[in-house]
Q: What sequence folds into this?
């Protein structure tokens, strides 16, 4: 659950300082000791304890007593830091309702210069070790907390959108901070939930966008009917944090998997059969 804008606006400057200090200290500690927070914020022990109790109650910070009394940000706190910065920059002015949730992200409507979507990456929300194995951009060992993984994931998705838009039909990238990516709001349903009037034309359009992304040096690497949206009879490809460069040693196999996934969906739902080899040659040719 993302903390409400009203709650964020009501935060005291000391509470914001503690959240920022926790973010910095979690690069060194899994659980930040109280004395480290005191030193970082230059607040008294009683003041830090009081502010921490409020942040814990609001779902921004967690306490752990083993092996010592320590504190850590949770997603509510990290989302709050991202929202605070994006608001200061003028990227967003209001946060709306939740419009989507995946295994490792949650998406909300928001207002910026116009309607936008803000996606909060939450890598490791279910299993950080699984996330580390499935994403080569994460360190294989050492202290790599979920907040770093979520930040890297958001940065990667924003980078992909910047590379691809407008050559490829993806959401317009608007801004990024920490684990949050702000992009143009796409209101259409997923391909999985939509009944196409002309499946062949839509499949051709999807493959053409995959081809344009390939020409730009990018492979989606997780393409399916669930991350293709249909808006005004056009496809919009979303969810790019796992993208791969076309120069990667496994690029061919990953691209083939993306194409096979989409062809299998169209054959399953619309009885539309295409040869995977021909489709792959069309994309890479």
A:
């Amino acid at each position: 659950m993302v903390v409400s804008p009203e709650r964020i606006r009501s935060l005291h400057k000391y509470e914001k300082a503690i959240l920022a200090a926790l973010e910095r200290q979690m690069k060194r500690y899994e659980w930040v000791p109280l004395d480290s927070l005191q030193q970082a914020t230059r607040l008294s022990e009683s003041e830090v304890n009081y502010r921490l109790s409020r942040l814990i109650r609001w779902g921004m910070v967690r306490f752990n007593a083993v092996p010592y009394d320590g504190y850590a940000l949770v997603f509510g706190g990290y989302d709050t830091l991202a929202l605070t910065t994006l608001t200061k920059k003028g990227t967003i002015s209001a946060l709306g309702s939740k419009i989507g949730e995946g295994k490792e992200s949650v998406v909300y409507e928001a207002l910026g210069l116009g309607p936008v979507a803000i996606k909060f990456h939450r890598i490791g929300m279910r299993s950080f070790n699984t996330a580390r194995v499935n994403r080569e951009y994460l360190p294989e060992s050492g202290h790599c907390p979920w907040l770093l993984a979520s930040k890297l994931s958001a940065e990667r998705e924003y980078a992909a959108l910047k590379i691809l838009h407008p050559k490829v039909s993806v959401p317009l990238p608007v801004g990024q901070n920490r684990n949050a990516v702000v992009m143009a709001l796409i209101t259409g349903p997923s391909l999985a939930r939509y009944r196409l009037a002309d499946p062949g034309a839509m499949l051709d359009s999807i493959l053409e966008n995959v081809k344009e992304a390939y020409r730009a040096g990018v492979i989606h690497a997780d393409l399916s009917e669930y991350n293709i949206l249909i808006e005004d009879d056009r496809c919009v490809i979303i969810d790019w944090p796992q993208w791969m460069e076309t120069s990667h040693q496994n690029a061919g196999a990953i691209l083939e998997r993306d194409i096979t996934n989409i062809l299998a969906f169209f054959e399953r739902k619309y009885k539309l059969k295409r040869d995977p080899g021909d489709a792959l040659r069309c994309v890479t040719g």
Remarks:
- The two ends are 45 Å apart (CA to CA).
- The domain at 191-284 is CATH 1.10.510.10 (Transferase(Phosphotransferase); domain 1).
- Residues 278 and 285 are 10 Å apart (CA to CA).
